[in-house]
Design a protein that fits this description.
Blueprint lengths: L5 H11 L5 H17 L13 H16 L3 H7 L5 H13 L20 H6 L5 H8 L5 H7 L10
Helix pairs in contact: 2-3
Length: 156
């Protein structure tokens, strides 16, 4: 049996599972390479294996580095709404022989990895919006600096 190419696998996957854009698979492959480099993994062998949590962290970092404030919008455009979608992409590629897995790898390992708005939108919100999302500032200094100054206020 002839081994299919990565792009042939993507075409077949899109016929079988049209939830995800072809670019999502290409990006996942790039993010995997990024993660391997980030973790300083060897170029081959068992030690090259990347766990779901390592891959999710690599995807997060690579997405932010690549798309910045557009990260969430790009992922949603590709059909990726949550970390479980990354698991579906990975295991689709595993089923087609493009990626390998160990006996302990499970699709459930991608469940609940992180909240997309928190990791892909919040880093780009203005500081005031970030405080409002996480609750009021608790220090007196924060509330003091937020108070408008009047010309007759004492200067310290």
């Amino acid at each position: 049996m002839q081994k299919i190419t990565f792009f042939e696998a993507i075409q077949e996957l899109q016929r079988q599972d049209p939830r995800y854009a072809a670019d999502a698979y290409i990006f996942l492959r790039e993010a995997l390479d990024y993660t391997i480099k980030m973790l300083d993994k060897p170029s081959d062998g068992a030690a090259r294996h990347v766990s779901a949590s390592e891959l999710l962290e690599g995807i997060r970092a690579y997405t932010l580095e690549t798309f910045g404030p557009m990260s969430l919008r790009v992922l949603h455009h590709w059909g990726i709404q949550r970390t479980e979608d990354f698991g579906n992409l990975v295991f689709n590629l595993v089923r087609h022989g493009v990626l390998g897995k160990t006996e302990s790898d499970r699709i459930e390992d991608f469940t609940g990895g992180y909240d997309f708005p928190d990791v892909f939108s919040q880093p780009f919100l203005p500081e005031r919006s970030k405080r409002n999302r996480t609750g009021p500032a608790s220090s007196a200094a924060s509330s003091e600096s937020a108070r408008p100054r009047h010309s007759n206020d004492e200067q310290h």
